[in-house]
Amino acid sequence: MSRLLHVADGPYAPPVPAHELTVTAADGARIHVEVHGPENAPAVVLTHGWCCSTAFWAAQIRALAADHRVIAYDQRGHGRSPANPAYGTEPLADDLEAVLEATLAPGERAVIAGHSMGGMTLMAAATRPAVREHAAAVLLTSTGSARLVASATVVPMRAGRVRTWLTRRVLGSRAPLGPVTPLARRILKYGTMGPGSSPQMVEACARIVHACPSRVRHGWSQVLDLLDLDHGVRELRMPVEIVVGAADRLTPPVHARALAAALPDCVGLTELPGLGHMTPVEAPDLVTGKIRALAATYIPSARGERAVPVEESA
C-alpha cells in the first residue's frame, strides 16, 4: 500500500473522469488527459506542478465538475504521461498547447489554472496561439517566474550562496523518495505545506509526490533551477489572479508580488496566512471558488450569454 499513486477515498481521492484521451505534443510526447463534467458546460483547464499529477486537483475537479467541463492533464513524465527525454519550458508549452487544441472547440474560451510548475507552463506558453485563443482568464497558484532556488526557504538559514547551494542539492537530489512513512510525511509537510495542514492533506500530497519517478523529479528540478520566464509573465495579457500561501517555502510570496507587479492585467493577489506551497490541497474551497468566479466573470457561456468568437472580440 505504500506505493499507492494517490489516496483511495475522501475528498482528495480523484473522481472517475467522464472520458480520457491521449494527446500527442509537437515532439511526439504522449500526454494523458482527463475530462470531467457536462460536455457543453463552461471549460476549466488544470495544469499541475512538479512531482504531481491530475490527482493533485481532486478537490477542485470534484466540486467544479458539477457544472463545468474540467480538463486536467499529466505533465510529461508525471502521472500517466510517459517520461520523455525533452526537459524544458518549451516542451511544457508544447504540451499545454496540444491539450488545448485537442479538447477545446475553435474559439472556445476557458479558465486555465496552473499550480507551481503548471503556472510556469502558462508563462512559457503565453505567446502560443492556442493560449491566446482559448484563455479567457488564468489563475496562478503558488508559482514564480525566475530565481526559484535562491529565494526558496526550504533550508532554514540566512539567504546567500551557502543556502542556495544546499537548496539546489536538496531539490535536485536523484535519490528515490521511497515509501510513504511517518518520517516521509513530516519531511514533505515541512517542505511543502503549512504547519496547520491536516493529516488527510499531508497523506494526499505524500502519495502523489512519492509516485513521481526519481529521474523525472531530478530532470525537472534542473529546469526549475535555471528558470527565467519573466518575459512570459508580461505576455499573459488576459485577466490573471494569483493565490499564494504566506508560509510557502518553495515559491515564497515575494514571487507572487513580483508577478502581480509585472502582469498586464492582474485582477487579484491573495496571500493565505499559515498556508504552504500546496494551496489547492490546503485551501481547496478557496481555490475552487477563485476558479469558479473567474469562469463566471470571463466566460460568456457561464453567464448564459452567447460566446463571442475570438475574431469578433479582438
Structural commentary:
- The protein is an alpha/beta fold.
- It has helices spanning 58-64, 89-103, 117-124, 129-134, 148-151, 161-171, 182-192, 199-210, 214-225, 230-234, 253-262, 279-282, 284-298, 310-313; strands spanning 19-24, 30-36, 43-47, 69-73, 110-115, 135-141, 240-245, 266-272.
- Strand 7, helix 11 (253-262) and strand 8 form a beta-alpha-beta unit.
- The longest helix is centred in the N-terminal third of the chain and has 15 residues, at 89-103.
- The model is unreliable at 306-314 (pLDDT under 50).
What is this structure's SSE topology?
Elements: E1 19-24, E2 30-36, E3 43-47, H1 58-64, E4 69-73, H2 89-103, E5 110-115, H3 117-124, H4 129-134, E6 135-141, H5 148-151, H6 161-171, H7 182-192, H8 199-210, H9 214-225, H10 230-234, E7 240-245, H11 253-262, E8 266-272, H12 279-282, H13 284-298, H14 310-313
Parallel strand pairs: 3-4, 3-5, 5-6, 6-7, 7-8
Antiparallel strand pairs: 1-2, 2-4
Helix pairs in contact: 1-13, 2-3, 7-8
